Amino acid sequence: MKKANVLIGLMLIAMVCNSQSFSGRIMHDTMPLPGATIEIKKLKLAVISDETGHFSITSLQPGNYLLHISMIGYEAYHGNILVPRDVSSPQVFNLVPVSSSLDAVVVTGTMKPMLKKESPILVEVYTPQFLRKNPVPSIFEALQNVNGVRPQLNCNICNTGDIHINGLEGPYTMITIDGMPIVSSLASVYGLFGIPTQLIDRIEIVKGPASGLYGSEAIGGLINIITKSPDKAPAFTFNAMSTSWLEHSVDAGAKFRIGKKASSLLGINYFNYQNPVDNNKDNFTDVTLQHRISVFNKISFKRKNDRLASLAGRYFYEDRWGGEMHWNRKWRGTDSVYGESIRTSRWEAIGNYQLPTTEKMIFSFSATGHHQDSYYGITPFFADQKIYFGQLTWDKNVSHNHSALIGLATRYNYYDDNSTATKDTLTGNNDPEKVFLPGIFLQSEWKLNNKHHLLLGMRYDYHSVHKNILTPRIAWKWSLNDKQIIRVNGGTGFRVVSLFTEEHAALTGARAVEVKEKLKPEKSYNINVNYSTRITGSKAALNVDLSGWYTYFHNQIIPDYLTDPNKIIYENLDGFSISRGITLNAEGNLSRRIRILTGITLQDVAKFENDGAGKKIKQNILLTEKWSGTWAFTYSFPVNGITIDYTGNIYGPMQLPLISVLDPRKPTSPVWSIQNIQATKKFSSLFEIYGGIKNLLNWTPAKNTSFILARSHDPFDKKVEYDGSGNVLATAENPYALTFDPAYVYAPNQGRRLFLGVRIHVK
């Protein structure tokens, strides 16, 4: 026995003495890549590259091994290595950035994680790398370079806005955080700012109705902002930027552990702009002054079998004002100096919990409270909104080619304000809006074979006012080969309108609001066809997405600014409206140094209304462009870690709201474009600086018209004269028969400015 032990010991010593090590370095061109995973799976060995990209694997016996290298954002490497090597210097492995968003994992289209190229629903994915090409202090501004998506300012003075998708107004766009519908109504106008961009893992966009899964408000499209998991987030991130207009923003995130079974991700977003500018000489601020802070915290819990459990919360406060240059807070709500002062206080909570069952069942919930304290001149607007949402989903694999998703959802909306929206018309007493909206949905997916993937879905909601609402959907994906895909999606959507929380112009006091009837929920019917292809070469790769869509709206509610220049009239459309068009996206990588992301959208958005004689008259929708384009070009220099980003957008003409037949302002906007350039210098994997010019062309709407704000010298209409019917009279003092109105807005008023920033990234 002793001899056997001695023999085994000698063999082990011999093996150790004969063992070798293999070292290398992970790089992207001249930039080291820390945090890459290097594996020899056959031996179950894995190491992580250090801050300089170096790694070493020890205790290897001589021989050939298959090496696997992986890192998020880069294509995986697989190759054979020889141990020992006949050279002493470490071997360099050069990773190539992922050339396509096709490799991204998406969840928004089907509520289940899958590769984008496998999804039967077309989902567009935008990563933090995309957001860094044109750094901005809010998500609202970040979406300006997404094809077919346009952040629309709704007021020249307070600069609040919403997000348009394929020419549809902001209320048709549902915005979720981690899939939870907490950014809606009041938040879609006032709460899109202050979401910390440093904590965003990706943004997923679905164009076209998504009510079959997400319910009301997802009638035109869905934007899902997905935050980073605390388990995978960097230890610390920091981004600070200032501009020559004296705008200052800070965005920071930090990860830390809570005991042994929880990790937390804390984010803070701060923005401050207190420098009134009046370049167009109308005595009003060109850009709203803003002071805001947002604090976000997400906790992830470690559970058995890697079951999901997370809890997140956010608090947001903003104080913004715009108006006459000499306005200050003592004039708030008075008729001496005009100002629009908006104070927003908002809290949000999001949670996900996977039930401890053998089946994959997840309970998700969200809650939000929103308080608005605002004055538009002398018009006060105080509002409170609370939204509570809960959802239970069961993801069931029925067979090897058939899966089902069953969901139960319920939503409670509470809304109260000081306007006529929440008053009992008979008694005059306050009557807050309370809506309970339970629903159930079923989604069934069949992988018929390697080429065909079919999805069928149905959702049923019961609205406490509008009763039963059904929204079916169907999707079919045909993989022509491994590089070409055709998708056909169809479905319906619905939206219950809340005018005073969605339409900023209803609050300004500049126009009277008239609701002519009891409004019915809007309904839509949509079909979308998409063709995707991937073209690859030895030094280039190009992905192309071509889509066409047609959406038909019934009972649509479109604010009428034209019938009476002193009113905004709301009623269900006596007729129908359509949104149709085509969009093309191209994403390319040339010689590993030039990256291109560009797109163009052609669209026709119009309403067809009865003229009283049995004919349908076509009218274009206000503030809706016929065509638009976006681009982002990036060039990485072979040395010194320098990249150049050139980004921009361009929009075709759109019809604008005039006040009277004598209004001298142009009824349509010109072709306009905002372009930016940025240089980034990466000193290490930890630190980089960036800077550049925003709005290179120094374009503003003031270049196209003699004035933007009507009667900016008389914002309280003290000198306006009216006839017996309440119509504005043309006088020597008011030759165009105008009243004060900030609704003539289609583009930002902010001109050219320099910017400089710094980023810190600690793994």
Structure, described:
With about 775 residues, the chain is mainly beta. It has three domains: about 1-95, Immunoglobulins (Immunoglobulin-like); about 100-225, TonB-dependent receptor, plug domain (Ferric Hydroxamate Uptake Protein, Chain A, domain 1, Beta Complex), CATH 2.170.130; about 225-760, Beta Barrel (Maltoporin, Chain A). It is about 5% helix and about 50% strand. It has a 22-stranded antiparallel beta barrel. Strands 11-16-17-14-15 form a five-stranded mixed beta sheet. The model is unreliable at about 10-15 (pLDDT under 50).
Name a few traits of the molecule:
5% helix; 22-stranded antiparallel β-barrel; five-stranded mixed sheet; Maltoporin, Chain A; mainly beta; 42 strands; 763 residues; 3 domains; single chain; globular; 52% strand; Ferric Hydroxamate Uptake Protein, Chain A, domain 1; Immunoglobulin-like
Nutshell version of this structure?
With 763 residues, the protein is mainly beta. Helix content is 5%, strand content 52%.
Percentage of residues in DSSP E strands: over 45%
Question: What do the pLDDT scores average to?
Answer: 86
Number of domains: 3
Class based on secondary structure composition and strand pairing? mainly beta
* Residue runs with pLDDT of under 50 for 5 or more positions: 10-17
Give the overall shape.
globular
CATH architecture of the largest domain: Beta Barrel
Radius of gyration, taken over Cα atoms and rounded to an integer in Å: 29 Å
CA-to-CA gap between the ends? 51 Å
Write the layout of secondary structure elements.
Blueprint: H1 2-18, E1 20-28, E2 31-32, E3 37-40, E4 45-48, E5 54-60, E6 63-71, E7 74-83, E8 91-94, E9 105-106, E10 114-115, E11 124-126, H2 128-132, H3 139-142, E12 149-153, E13 161-165, E14 173-177, E15 180-183, H4 186-190, E16 200-207, H5 211-214, E17 221-227, E18 236-243, E19 247-258, E20 262-273, E21 289-301, E22 309-323, E23 339-354, E24 360-376, E25 379-399, E26 402-417, E27 433-447, E28 452-463, E29 467-479, E30 484-495, H6 499-502, E31 512-515, E32 522-536, E33 540-554, E34 567-570, E35 575-590, E36 594-610, E37 616-620, E38 627-636, E39 642-651, E40 672-682, E41 687-694, E42 753-762
Parallel strand pairs: 1-8, 14-17, 31-34
Antiparallel strand pairs: 1-2, 1-5, 3-4, 3-6, 6-7, 9-10, 11-16, 12-13, 14-15, 16-17, 18-19, 18-42, 19-20, 20-21, 21-22, 22-23, 23-24, 24-25, 25-26, 26-27, 27-28, 28-29, 29-30, 30-32, 32-33, 33-35, 35-36, 36-37, 36-38, 38-39, 39-40, 40-41, 41-42
